[in-house]
Design a protein that fits this description.
single chain, alpha+beta, ten-stranded antiparallel beta sheet
Amino acid sequence: MINILNHGKVISSISLFQRNVSRKCVGVLLIVLSTSAFSQSDAKQTLRGVYNKLQKAKDYSVQANIKVDMPFIRMLPIDATIYYKQKDKFKVESKSIAIVPRQGFDQASKMLADTNAFTAVAQGTEMIAGVNTSILNIIPLSDTSDLILGKLWVDPKQNLILKSQLTTKSNGTILTEYTYGAQSAYGLPDKMIFSVDVKKFKVPKGVTADLNNSTDEKKKKENENKKGKIFITLTNYQVNKGIPDEKFKK
């Protein structure tokens, strides 16, 4: 009789333990789900602030000084004029051939325009130049997008992108660092540094390059795996002065 009662107590204790564990698991799951939902909502709210700031510049022109540091490419620093007009007009004018990754100029606006086209997740924070930035991952929901994955380091107080890492089908992964000055109210930088995949980055036709002509296959492969850098300094912004559409047709 004693054994039966003790056995019953053990069974009751185990059942009670299982119920408590189940309740705790459900509670933890609910916390995780609610935290995840809040994280996504908070991330999209931050990105909406960035997008709204970028939308303030309906059009602009700016003088650009471009320096290229890429294996097998011989190019002196050049000057160019960059023109932009919402929503999708972009042009670079120069007496020489300019290497300007368009992704760093209008990709953010395109990417953030439709909040239903991507999932945004907050990944944490990181200090950049004394600013505590929010790290946000952006995952497109469409397979037709050129963008595979986006990662933004955002100053949430000023709604500025301080760094971005965009992985695209066309140009591989491009890491961009931004420095702001007088035009920060429009989200327009004074300096940009692009780090690109040499192997995947599309070099404009006409640029003097020895990448495909190298006879040393080992050296060629080593350089293909390296990162190239493009430094762009931007001055003399003309914002919202009006640029005719014909400017982009020439």
